[in-house]
């Protein structure tokens, strides 16, 4: 036989061997992408089962993730989606691109979910009935009697064929059979078929999560509660819990103590038509740990006012209330979308926003209380001008305090407005346009991740230097409010002067960082400029932050002269 003839025979033999290998692969692909079953007895397929699970969760969300993993253990379709399967690079043929392999992985996982409906699996339990105050029939009416929210989708009777019609499964099977029966492996046709199958799976998963499970309703609920869109509810909650939060949280009962004002606020502001509120629960995260700020750095209550919990309670700082967080109960199939990482980001933004709103409210309350006192003093002065010199002196002495308060309120008010309007509302509108236009589940997941990343980034939560300064400013504002409330009975000029000086320093540092060239050149520059424009629209903030307008800072010598 001629040499070229032997080479041709050898090539034909190799092609034939490759063809037989592809037959095995297409059988595995059919099992995986049509039925959602991994048929790989000898570990030859490039999609493999992952037996080990990561445990690299940080302490702030470990309990949350543990509950989630417990749900995974009971829910096979949910476990399959999040942890069970991956692409094995060692077994992946070199002519199949990683992007294509990931599409195959996604399609198979989606088919498993669609063919194995798992109703009843919840990520967090609803608030237990025992936590409701006695007689709160209104709270019980938020649920449909059995503890499940009213008017929400019921998947108890749903069938796999409803989620993935037989005609669609046959279509996927036919595409794979055409590839299998071909005499040669055509890379372009293979990638095209995988893309089409992935689109079919993604569209049906979108139909399940977005339409059947009312994804947009849950997104709106998360915005209402985690992003404080229901401002009246949180205003009422903070007012109801204001006296409680003036004392350090009690280690054993802090969460239960907060539940009463939380539910009272719900009774006053949440309508029965809000079918999502029962999914929201209040928590104190990482409770029992000492705060980074010692109690003597904050305004101390009287020893008699401390809770009778002994030394452990007194060691906790007043800003231990910063550990307030929300949890949201998520049912199947929304756990595919709202993962522990996603809910952790919502929780992080919530904790920031509730601290900001609490600070803003305290500044407003302090102003209202002193204005009430000032009007009473002015009324007394008008009635008895001869003996009104003490009243006039007290009013004159208080003016510098209110300049400082106004500077604080100006910064906090503009930061709050910037985050709620320029960041949250604008990003929400972008997300809504994507939800309306997209019919692909993976696209929607990506858009939602961009939405959360934008919230964190544009609120400066990912810039350690800025977020630390803002936290310090909020604490200084609270200290100032608590100090001036006792100003009439116990003038503490040096303490207020120290708070004012620290506030001016922090404000100056904040302005310097926001104007820095490093941040000006980053991708968040447009949002920084927007925030700076709000703060400095008439150069007021710049002059104040740079210490030009120091009339609001009480110097010990000036204070002494006034006294």
From TrEMBL:
Spans traversing the lipid bilayer: none
Residue ranges of domain Gamma tubulin complex component C-terminal in the record: 215-541
Pfam families: GCP_C_terminal, GCP_N_terminal
UniProt superkingdom: Eukaryota
Entry keyword set: Cytoplasm, Cytoskeleton, Microtubule
GO molecular function annotation: gamma-tubulin binding; microtubule minus-end binding
Protein's GO biological process: cytoplasmic microtubule organization; meiotic cell cycle; microtubule nucleation; mitotic cell cycle; spindle assembly
Start and end residues of each Gamma tubulin complex component protein N-terminal domain: 16-210
Region Disordered, residue ranges: 121-140
Subcellular localization, as worded in the UniProt entry: Cytoplasm, Cytoskeleton, Microtubule organizing center
Cross-referenced InterPro entries: GCP, GCP_C, GCP_C_sf, GCP_N
One GO cellular component term noted in the UniProt record for this chain: microtubule
Family named by the database record: Belongs to the TUBGCP family.
Function, as annotated: Component of the gamma-tubulin ring complex (gTuRC) which mediates microtubule nucleation. Gamma-tubulin complex is necessary for microtubule nucleation at the microtubule organizing centers (MTOCs).
Name assigned to this protein: Gamma-tubulin complex component
Protein's organism: Panicum virgatum
């Amino acid at each position: 036989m001629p040499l070229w003839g032997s080479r041709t025979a050898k090539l034909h033999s190799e092609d034939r061997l490759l063809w037989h290998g592809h037959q095995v692969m297409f059988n595995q692909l059919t099992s995986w992408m049509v039925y959602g079953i991994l048929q790989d007895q000898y570990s030859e397929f490039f999609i493999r089962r992952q037996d080990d699970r990561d445990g690299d969760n940080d302490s702030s969300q470990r309990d949350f993730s543990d509950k989630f993993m417990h749900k995974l253990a009971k829910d096979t379709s949910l476990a399959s989606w999040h942890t069970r399967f991956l692409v094995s690079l060692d077994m992946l043929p070199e002519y199949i691109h990683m992007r294509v392999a990931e599409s195959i992985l996604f399609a198979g996982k989606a088919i498993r979910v669609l063919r194995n409906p798992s109703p009843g699996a919840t990520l967090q339990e609803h608030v237990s009935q025992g936590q409701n105050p006695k007689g709160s029939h209104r709270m019980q009416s938020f649920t449909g009697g059995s503890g499940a929210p009213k008017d929400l989708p019921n998947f108890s009777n749903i069938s796999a064929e409803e989620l993935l019609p037989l005609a669609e499964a046959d279509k996927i099977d036919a595409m794979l059979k055409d590839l299998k029966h071909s005499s040669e492996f055509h890379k372009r046709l293979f990638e095209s078929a995988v893309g089409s199958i992935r689109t079919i799976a993604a569209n049906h998963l979108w139909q399940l999560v977005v339409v059947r499970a009312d994804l947009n309703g849950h997104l709106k609920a998360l915005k209402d509660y985690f992003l404080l869109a229901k401002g009246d509810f949180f205003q009422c909650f903070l007012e109801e819990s204001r006296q409680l939060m003036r004392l350090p949280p009690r280690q054993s009962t802090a969460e239960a103590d907060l539940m009463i004002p939380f539910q009272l606020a719900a009774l006053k502001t949440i309508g029965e038509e809000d079918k999502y509120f029962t999914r929201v629960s209040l928590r104190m995260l990482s409770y029992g740990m000492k705060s980074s700020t010692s109690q003597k750095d904050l305004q101390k209550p009287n020893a008699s006012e401390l809770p009778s919990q002994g030394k452990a309670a007194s060691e906790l700082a007043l800003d231990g209330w910063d550990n307030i967080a929300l949890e949201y109960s998520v049912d199947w199939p929304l756990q595919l979308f709202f993962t522990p990482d996603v809910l952790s980001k919502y929780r992080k933004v919530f904790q920031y926003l509730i601290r900001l709103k609490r600070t803003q409210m305290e500044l407003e309350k302090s102003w209202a209380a002193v204005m009430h006192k000032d009007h009473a003093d002015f009324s007394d002065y008008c009635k008895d001008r001869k003996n009104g010199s003490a009243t006039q002196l007290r009013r004159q002495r208080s003016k510098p305090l209110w300049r400082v308060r106004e500077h604080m309120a100006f910064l906090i008010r503009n930061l709050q407005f910037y985050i709620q309007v320029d960041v949250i509302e604008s990003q929400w509108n972008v997300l809504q346009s994507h939800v309306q236009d997209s019919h692909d589940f993976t696209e929607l997941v990506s858009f939602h991740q961009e939405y959360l990343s934008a919230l964190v980034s544009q609120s400066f939560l990912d810039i350690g230097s800025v977020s630390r300064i803002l936290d310090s400013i909020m604490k200084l504002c609270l200290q100032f409010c608590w100090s001036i409330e006792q100003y009439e009975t116990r003038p503490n000029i040096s303490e207020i002067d120290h708070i004012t000086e620290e506030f001016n320093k922090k404000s100056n540092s904040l302005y310097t960082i926001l104007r820095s060239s490093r941040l000006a050149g980053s991708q968040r520059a447009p949002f920084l400029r927007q925030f700076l424009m709000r703060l400095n629209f008439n150069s007021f903030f710049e002059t104040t932050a740079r210490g030009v307008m120091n009339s609001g800072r009480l110097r010990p010598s000036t204070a002494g002269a006034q006294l």
